[in-house]
Design a protein that fits this description.
Number of strands of chain A: 5
Distance between the termini of chain B: 23 Å
Radius of gyration of chain A: 30 Å
Largest sheet of chain B: 7 strands, mixed
Order of helices and strands of chain B: EEHHHEHEHEEHEHHHEE
Strand order of the largest sheet of chain A: 3-2-1-4-5
Strand content of chain B: 15-25%
Oligomer: heterodimer
Number of helices of chain B: 9
Number of helices of chain A: 7
Structural class of chain A: alpha+beta
Radius of gyration of chain B: 17 Å
């Protein structure tokens, strides 16, 4: 039942986007009354998108015939945003596509081209100046957050690399300890033999 | 399904003459029609919307299809099907009860859905359509109110096109003992009280609880569909088996 809840939320989001971005309808014109099914193998989940020219229906547990059926993993889904990558993903065996590739490309292109004019939509609630100010601040914050995120990633990667050169694996440490212990025992035995020879 | 013999049937827990059931069921739905949608949301905590979503996902309805939404009531499924079949398709909202049809028609017109919907008062046991004329039939929470369920299933099979499918969304039986006890308590104690408070009608909601208990379980309904001629019949349980969606094809 959880899949029905998720698809209901997804349907609300997609239809909200359709309402906010009028060009989305033009981009999806070729997808009208055709079904795009998506199966995520790692989650064992199937869903489908059916756009009727006005509204997009999102189905869960879809097992009927679709005009285009994509089978892939959750990790590959973000890469579907770029329509030019579809062929590469198929060749790399990361994606299996059955049916009309143009339908997948239509969805991919439509959602990758999304450029919602948030200031325009918010101006009805906040006024032109307020909406513009909010959108500008949010864009600035997003850029700032992205910059911090990139810096953190860079620092973290650098730290890991530096640490890689000086620290050893716990197994190596254990091996070193056992070899040292063996050497110490050999030395003790040698010492005893030398002492015996002197005596 | 007829119970006991050919002259009697069940109306909730009561045994009545078969020819009385239609009018008694009609009285129930005349009584609840106005508050039907609000009571559905109240009684199921809104979960009926998810059950119906899954029914639509399993329907395979496409542009140009002719869909019959039997016992369609206030038109929840019809509203979605109307958008899916497009201008070249048609949805027939069928119900035996004219009060429910009126509420459904008003609601769908308010939603702006007018061009491809037809409203027909009909008895599921004698569908007024030619053989092989419908692509998909759905009957959601309606089959248990039908006097002769076998005859209704045969009638649906007759009007379906080869390749067409029937979807039966209906209350069913849960295997989980704890859930079953909780559900019984809810059905016989809370539900009639809610009916009394919201719709000022506790008897109709007592009938609802009783009729659910008298309805055949998942496997029985599946075999009834097979007896009527349906192939590749299957069902999926929702909410622990409280509701089940049966699907069968005509080839």
């Amino acid at each position: 039942m959880w899949i029905s809840v998720l698809t209901a939320i997804a349907e609300q989001v997609v239809n909200r986007l359709l309402a906010l971005e009028p060009t989305l309808k033009d981009d999806l014109q070729n997808a009208e009354h055709r079904v795009l099914a998506l199966t995520l193998t790692d989650l064992n989940v199937s869903c489908a998108f059916h756009y009727n020219g006005d509204h997009c229906f999102v189905y869960g547990n879809y097992h009927d015939k679709a005009d285009c059926h994509i089978t892939t993993s959750l990790a590959t889904v973000p890469e579907l945003k770029d329509p030019s990558q579809l062929t590469r993903l198929i060749r790399a065996n990361k994606l299996d596509l059955e049916g009309d590739i143009h339908l997948a490309q239509a969805y991919s292109k439509a959602f990758s081209n999304l450029q919602i004019d948030w200031a325009e939509h918010l101006s009805g609630y906040l006024g032109d100046a307020g909406a513009q100010q909010l959108v500008t601040s949010l864009s600035g914050s997003k850029a700032q957050a992205q910059k911090h995120c990139d810096t953190f990633q860079h620092v973290f990667a650098q730290l890991c690399q530096d640490e890689l050169n000086v620290s050893i694996h716990p197994l190596e440490l254990q091996q070193y300890k056992s070899q040292t212990r063996a050497l110490s025992q050999q030395l003790a035995a040698l010492e005893q033999r030398i002492n015996a020879l002197i005596d | 399904m007829k119970e006991e013999n050919h002259d009697t049937t069940h109306f909730g827990y009561k045994t009545i003459e078969s020819n009385q059931k239609e009018s008694l069921v009609a009285d129930v739905f005349h009584s609840v029609a106005a508050k039907y949608d609000i009571m559905n949301d109240f009684m199921s905590f809104g979960i009926h919307r998810l059950w119906k979503r899954q029914t639509i996902a399993c329907s395979g309805v496409r542009k140009g299809h002719r869909v019959l939404d039997l016992a369609g009531g206030t038109g929840d499924l019809t509203a979605k099907f109307s958008q899916l079949v497009g201008d070249t398709g048609q949805v027939i909202l069928g119900d035996i009860n004219d009060s429910m049809l009126k509420v459904g028609r008003e609601k769908l017109r308010d939603l702006g859905l007018v061009s491809n919907i037809e409203y027909v008062q009909m008895n599921a046991q004698a569908l007024p359509f030619p053989d092989n004329s419908i692509d998909v039939i759905t009957i959601a929470f309606g089959l248990r109110n039908v006097t002769d369920k076998d005859e209704a299933l045969r009638s649906m099979y007759r009007v379906l096109k080869p390749g067409g499918r029937l979807l039966v969304l209906e209350f069913s039986k849960t295997d989980n003992e704890a859930l079953s006890k909780l559900y019984d308590f809810y059905s016989f104690n809370i539900l009639p009280t809610m009916g009394k408070l919201v719709a000022n009608d506790s008897e109709s909601y007592r009938y609802l609880a009783e009729s659910i208990r008298m309805h055949p379980d998942q496997e029985t309904l599946k075999s009834m569909m097979e007896d009527a001629g349906f192939e590749q019949t299957s069902y999926q349980n929702f909410t622990g088996g409280i509701v089940a969606l049966h699907r069968g094809f005509k080839y």
